[in-house]
Sequence to fold (393 residues):
Amino acid sequence: MTLRRCVLGSNPVKARTLALAAFSSLTVLASAQAGSSPASSPLQIAVEGPQSGQQATNGLDQLRGVRLAVSQLNARGGLWDGRDVALFPVDDKADATHAKQLARQVVAKGIGFVIGPYNSSVGIANLGFYRRNHVLPLWMTSRDETAGAGATVQPMNSQIAPVEEAYLNRLRARRVAMLVDDTANGAFTKGMANRLRKVLLHDGVAVTWISVRETTTAGLPPTYYPARIAKALATRPDLVYVSTYFPEGVAIAKALTAAGTAPPCLMGLANVDNGFLAKTTLAEASRCVFSGVPAATEMPSARTYVRQYRTKFGKVPGVWGSFTYDSANILFAAINRARSDSFGSVERELRATTRYRGATGTITIDPTTGYRTTVPVSILRVGHRKTFVIASR
Fold:
């Protein structure tokens, strides 16, 4: 107080200048201590998936799921510190070749969170790079080799295989012919088939493995998939198991339908896709049952999500957008609980997620693995309205 009186008495103009400067400094300090202000730049998060190419129906549905969650968050006032969230779409085209290059772009932009990738081959290529560079993933891959830092709300291979094994046991299948995409991009499909084959051989089931190329393979003749089906049926199997992505699943479903109604067929989770339904007739789509999760329209827990999705995008949601929607929401909740966007703080809160009521059901994350403790995996069929519905539990 003595100093202030001295300054005011000697030079009033200088005193006012110093007082204003001191006030400005205190304001900046208070803002820094309180955290970012509402005027701060938005927090960017990346959303990686096949947003173009053959699997674009999946990737775009996933992107819309996150966009819906972000728009709802921002409408409520943003994160705990008033910041909005902005999206950085990353289109990996389901191709592992450029996966690390795309991840470098995310890191270069200083983005700290990524929802995705979806394809296990891509995740094997770039998830480790994300983690080493302190980008926290909410991964959408299912192969257990892609697990690590962060968390996932979707089922992993080790959680899907027991459902498939139980179904085959109910059918009393003793001979199984497997059609498997075991190409470089088929990390998930190959891993899933390997896991199931292991338990089937342990149970005394005879298994025939038939490799399947992708539909994009250059020079693939029209007779390729019918020939693969003929080879499988020649083993006189009790069941045909198909572990491919949906473009190959479409070709196999057509060839199987043309070959007759027997034996039964089980398709893996990667064929549970609106793209599969769009490119098959009802008879072809109904030829097999599927292991996987039902579309959002078939989940009672997703009724509100379905209505909001339709209102915002004018489209019927697919299977995986509800999972990225939930991924985004548990991420935002973790950031708010941590009152921070630092890698370690958010990961701890993310893995402390318990009984979160999401579009895909109740979500609890295992703090050790980052896996969802209970996953909505069922045996599905295609109903008369040409949607995936639960066939059995």
User: Anything to note?
Assistant: The chain has two domains: 43-155+298-376, 157-292. The longest helix spans residues 12-34. The CA atoms of residues 107 and 133 lie 7 Å apart.
